[in-house]
Description:
Layout: H1 3-27, H2 29-52, H3 73-82, E1 86-92, H4 99-105, H5 111-118, H6 121-126, E2 134-140, E3 145-151, E4 156-157, E5 166-176, E6 179-189, E7 191-199, H7 204-210, H8 215-225, E8 240-250, E9 253-267, E10 270-277, E11 287-289, E12 310-312, E13 315-318, E14 325-328, E15 331-334, E16 340-342, E17 347-355, E18 359-366, E19 370-380, E20 387-388, E21 393-397, E22 407-414, E23 417-419, H9 439-445, H10 447-457, H11 463-466
Antiparallel strand pairs: 1-2, 2-3, 3-5, 4-5, 5-6, 7-8, 8-9, 9-10, 10-11, 12-15, 13-14, 15-22, 16-21, 17-18, 17-20, 18-19, 19-21, 19-22, 22-23
Helix pairs in contact: 4-5
Amino acid sequence: MSFVEFKHAATQGAQGLASDLANWLHQHHKRVLAGVGSGLLLTSAAAFALAYEGPQAHPPAPTWVSVAVASTAPQQAEQLSNVDQVVYTTAHVRASDSVESLLRRLQVTDPQQLRQLSAQPDLRALVTGDPGRVVSAQVSNLGELRSLQGRLPGLEPVAGGTGDAREWRELTVHATPQGWRVHTLSRVVQPALRAASGVVQSSFFAAADEAGLPHNVASQLINVFDTQINFRRNLRPGDRFSVVYRVYQAQGQTLADGRLVSAQFINQGHDYKAVWFDAKGDAKVSGYYAPNGDSLSRAFLLSPLPYDRITSGWGWRENPVMHFHEFHKGIDLAVPIGTPVKTIADGRVVYAGWGTGYGKYVKVEHPGGFATIYSHLSAFKVHVGEQVKQGEVVALSGNTGWSTGPHLYFQFFVHGTPVNPLTLAHYAPKGTPVPAALRTEFLAQTAEPRQLLAVIDGNSPLTTAAAQPGKGAQHG
C-alpha cells in the first residue's frame, strides 16, 4: 500500500468513526450529559477531598429506567364528542311567536322536528293567548328536542267546583322511539286577595301604574264607579283610591289577575265604596253593592265615549257654522273620527240615518221616558228596531253634517224634553238592593274584603255600617 492509499484509507476510517460517534451522541445525548455532569461532580468531590483530606464515599453509578407510556387521550376525546349531551333551556312566549320561532329560541334546530312540532295543535295553543309565560325544554347537542314543558294560556273554572277555584293546564311533550308523546295536565289553583292604593296626581291610570295596579283591575274600578264618577272630567289631584282584588298564583308565579272584590274611591271629597257579591244560584242578584247592600248599578252611563273633551256645552251660543245665536240643546265632545260610541242605557234603536245639521245620527229610546241622540257619525253599528244593551257600540264618531271638526253631538231627553247631559246622573234610577233573604249571606261573604278596605283606609272595619240597611255610601 502506498502512502497515498494509506492516507486515503485512514481518512475514510476517521470520517466513518466520526459519523458513528455523532450518531451515537445523538441517540444517547442524555447519557452523555449525565456522564459529563457526573464527571464534574466527581471532579468537585476530588477537589474537595484534596482540600480536606480524608476518606470519601463514592456515589453509586446512575441507573436508567425506560418506561413505555400508552396515551389514550385522543380516544377519550373522541368518545366524549360522541356522547349525547343534553342542554336545559328556557324562553318566554312572545306575542309574535310561532311554534318554530319559540322552538328556535329554545335551541331546537333539527329541521324535521321543527316541521313535525309546528303541526302539533297543542303546541300552536302554547304560543297563543297572553305572552310572558315561561317554556322550558331539554335539547340535545345536535339540536334535537327531548322534552318540553309549558303553561297553556288562560284559567278555567273547575268543573263541578264551587267558589272562585280555577284550574290551569300544563303541556308536556316527550320524544319517544314511537314518536311524540303529548299530554296536558290540569292543576287547581285557589285565589288569594291582594290590596293596593294610590293617589291621583295627573291621571287615574298614571296613579294606578304608580300603585302597581294591573291594567285590567284598574279598568274594572272605572266600570264599577262609572255611573257615579266621570273619570274623564271630574278627577282632581289628591283624589285617592283603595282596592282589594283576586289573584291566582301557582309555583310562586301570578298566573292571572281576577275580579275586583272591593274598592273605595274618594273623588272631590265624596266617598264611594263597592263590594262584589256572588249570589250562588242567582246570577241576576250577583253584582257590586255598597257596603250596606244598596245597589251601585245605574240605568245610565255618564258618557257614551271612553274619553272626551267638551268643546261646546249646554246653553246659549253662536252657531259655529251659520253664525246665528242659538240655544245648544246638547254637548259637543271632541274625539277622533272612528271612536266607538256606546249607548248609555238599555233601549231600542228608533232611528239610524241622515238628518239636516246632524249628519249621520242614531236615536235610542230607553225605558222610563228617556231617549238619547248621537250625531255627526261616520258609520252605524246598529239598525232601526234593534234592541241594545247599556255600553253596546251603536256607531263610530265622525264629522258629518254641520260640523267644523271631528266630534260627537250628544243629546239627552226626558219625556221628549232636552236636558243637560251632564245632569243625567240625577235621573238615573237606582238598582235593586240585596234581597232581605240574602242579606246574611251578603254580609258573611263580603266581610273580609270590607275589613281589608278599612285597614287600607286606616278606619275601623265597615261591618257595623254594613249591618245597617239604609246607610249607604256617600254619593255626589
